[in-house]
Amino acid sequence: METIKVVFAILMIQNGSTIEMVPTEGLTDCLKQKRVISRNIGEDQEGIYMQCKEVTASLYEDMGRLKIKKIID
Predict the structure, then answer these.
(1) Residue 42 has what DSSP assignment?
(2) Domain that holds residue 58
(3) Where is 54: in which H helix or E strand?
């Protein structure tokens, strides 16, 4: 089942295009996860950077986890 909600998401952006989007529990959780990911992959990986952003997204559940199908706004 698909749901449309406003969520904070970690966006992985490469060369101006969003290549991955992961919903989080809120701004604090988003920033915490972003910090952990940035430490693991390094701060700047060939034009890839992470951003926390509040988005309206179409969400679906996959094996018990919410995932973003697409960002509406």
Answers:
(1) -
(2) 2-71
(3) strand 48-62
